[in-house]
Amino acid sequence: MQGVRRGEMSSCSSWAAMPILYSGSVVTGLWLVYFMAIIDEQIPPLGSTYSCQSESFLPPYISMAGNFPPASCIFSQVMNLAGYGGVVLFCYRFFQVKPRLKEVWLNVSALVANCINCFGITLAGNFQYSAEPTVHNIGAWLLFVVGSVACWLETWITIKIDIKNEGMKIGIIRALLSGVITICMVLFTVKEVQGDCTSAVPLEWALVMFMFLFYGTFAVEFRHSRFETTCTDTCPSTKVTSC
């Protein structure tokens, strides 16, 4: 058994690190922004008592943590990493699924939803709430709503392609994560409408953390794949004529 396990570990693709590094970097960056904002006394700590209408302290939303410099500088960098890095990750995921899934529309829909999600991330990161609240909120809701839909699509794909007979196991985990993400999004929306920021703030943090945890689970399938880039000439090598 030890020999088999060592063989399985040695055959594990290094591409498995990509989703983990992506999710880990973004989550670490967001918490760095949060602690910087607390040190600069821009927001109160999570779990503390605060007023939603306070002028001295902003509610500790993720957006508010990255609202003013120097935390806003790190916030923009982290969100750009999340946006552009996410597009790369989801393109690799698309090509991994492509030869295994007959329903092309499902794979394309997941890629489009994930890319819209990434676009929303960059909007939220580059347009701080204090400067452009409308654009910032559009980006945040693209992340929350379209991102939740993308998680369900990826869960469906996971079960259908069933890589190495692990589809059902990881599919159940992703379904649970998608359910938690959706519940957090709905409750967050309700609390925002009610003006209850003390309940909305932890829901927002939970929503984002679970969403990036979901992306990190792509490592399960990525460990079975290797990606290569091939460059070929369009003209035969024996001819000198121009293409």
UniProtKB/TrEMBL annotation:
<feature type="domain" description="CWH43-like N-terminal">
    <location>
        <begin position="15"/>
        <end position="224"/>
    </location>
</feature>
<comment type="similarity">
    <text>Belongs to the DRAM/TMEM150 family.</text>
</comment>
<feature type="transmembrane region" description="Helical">
    <location>
        <begin position="138"/>
        <end position="159"/>
    </location>
</feature>
<keyword id="KW-1133">Transmembrane helix</keyword>
<dbReference type="GO" id="GO:0005886">
    <property type="term" value="C:plasma membrane"/>
</dbReference>
<dbReference type="Pfam" id="PF10277">
    <property type="entry name" value="Frag1"/>
</dbReference>
<dbReference type="InterPro" id="IPR019402">
    <property type="entry name" value="CWH43_N"/>
</dbReference>
<keyword id="KW-0472">Membrane</keyword>
<keyword id="KW-0812">Transmembrane</keyword>
<feature type="transmembrane region" description="Helical">
    <location>
        <begin position="74"/>
        <end position="92"/>
    </location>
</feature>
<feature type="transmembrane region" description="Helical">
    <location>
        <begin position="20"/>
        <end position="39"/>
    </location>
</feature>
<feature type="transmembrane region" description="Helical">
    <location>
        <begin position="104"/>
        <end position="126"/>
    </location>
</feature>
<dbReference type="GO" id="GO:0012505">
    <property type="term" value="C:endomembrane system"/>
</dbReference>
<protein>
    <submittedName>
        <fullName>Transmembrane protein 150C</fullName>
    </submittedName>
</protein>
<feature type="transmembrane region" description="Helical">
    <location>
        <begin position="202"/>
        <end position="220"/>
    </location>
</feature>
<feature type="transmembrane region" description="Helical">
    <location>
        <begin position="171"/>
        <end position="190"/>
    </location>
</feature>
<dbReference type="InterPro" id="IPR050911">
    <property type="entry name" value="DRAM/TMEM150_Autophagy_Mod"/>
</dbReference>
